Amino acid sequence: GMLESYGELLETHYTKGGKPGYYPPIAGRAGFGQVGLNLWDPFQLISKNRSAADNARGLKSEILNGRAAMIGLMGFLSASSVPGSVPFLAGIEGFPKYSGNVMIPFEGDFTLFG
Fold this sequence. Notes:
Layout: H1 2-10, H2 52-81, H3 87-90
């Protein structure tokens, strides 16, 4: 959201030769008033002692975790849509089944409560 949009406005996008995973510091640079802290690591607890190798390892870990989360989500959606398609989840007693259409999650009903 906001962090990505800010990074795209000030720096070259990573698909156009920019640095993947880099967000420029925002402290004191925001056009809507002074922001005192950066959005990522505002108190410099993580970034002050990190080497380039640590940053590369963190980026790789973030990418792999994102991929694992996407695979897991697709597994849950598959198990809810096609019974028995994920044998591990099919063996769990009481595993909830999604009764709607996974491609249309709200089916035109956008009410939050009711």
